[in-house]
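Researcher: I need the complex structure. Ligand is iron/sulfur cluster. Inputs:
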Amino acid sequence: VCPTAALTGVGYISEVWDALFNPKKKVVVQVAPAVRVAIGEEFGMQPGQIVTGKLAAALRRIGFDGVFDTTFGADLTVIEEGREIMDRLKSGKNLPILTSCCPGWINFINYHFPTLKYMPSTCKSPQQMTGAIAKNYYAKKMGIDPKDMVVVSVMPCIAKKYEAALPYESTHGIPDVDYSITTRELAKMLKEGSVDLKNMPEETFDDPLGESTGAGVIFGATGGVLEAALRTVYEKYTGKTLEDVNFMAVRGTQGIREASIQINGRTVNVAALSGLGNARKVLEKIVKGEAHYDIIEIMACPSGCVNGGGQPYCHDRDEVIEQRIRGLYHIDRNQAIRKSHENPSIQKLYQEYLGEAGSHLAHELLHVESHN
Ligand code: SF4
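Model: Output:
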């Protein structure tokens, strides 16, 4: 059940079909990490079965002109948020930094802890970053007028619909994401288009917004955003290679996980929280001065996006969630590149377009002044 007060999500299936049948529009799609280990359930496959390649093929079959991976945006989020983390660790100001990629959680802090609103990272979420880069960098590269581009996102989440509708425009008044649909809604569309996901061949996402790392993939599980950020922050902060990228202490399905990590002789206290009840408990302690952290990841849904309100319905929820999480970490383990800053397409994006992390253009496209 979606805990984000967004239970009655707006469906955009007919709008997406209209766009796909409109010859004047270039319609691109991005798929969130947690979708690839869950949508197979709608087609008779096991929970946690990885269908990344089949999904790319299926999306092409129903007519998308560009098939992208929100995991690319997750890697980009790590670079931008990693920069903010390092700045705040160095200055000692505005700590703890709180992650900002879950709109359900951001909604919660705005309503319930307005005095802490300076704490979340100013980064947009991977969904919004991927949309902004598609309509700016990619559109420019391909010679497409951004006004003729439609960005569709496939999310495990109902709250992502209202996030996409927030006034985040970074392309001359055009939204970063036009339509956000859920995993269940995409499954419905594929069935309407007679596309059987199970029997699709394995294909890959399109370059350059299709290349991603293991770090980006684990965004779909609670603790994954924090772990991905630590892999990058450790190397950037120390200048040393992180030999073991697995931060096991922040993994798992317990609602509150804490760890202390040594970075350049400094003890960095981190926590991964899932479920808004757990977020409330920890934030109340912070307000009272009873808890001291440097970095906190918060996800509204218990266990994170694998358990989002837009995912396939299931019995044996705990077991299904465990299997979806195992699927994501399996992808991470087998990925050639497991650190976001080593993603070649992200490196090229900065070289060709953004300059450096936190640049003026990066702020314009990828950050917000305020999450209000
Ligand atoms: Fe959406 Fe993920 Fe947040 Fe749940 S945890 S509200 S699925 S972003």
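Model: Summary of the prediction. Strands lie at 26-31, 66-69, 97-98, 149-155, 179-182, 256-263, 266-274, 295-299.
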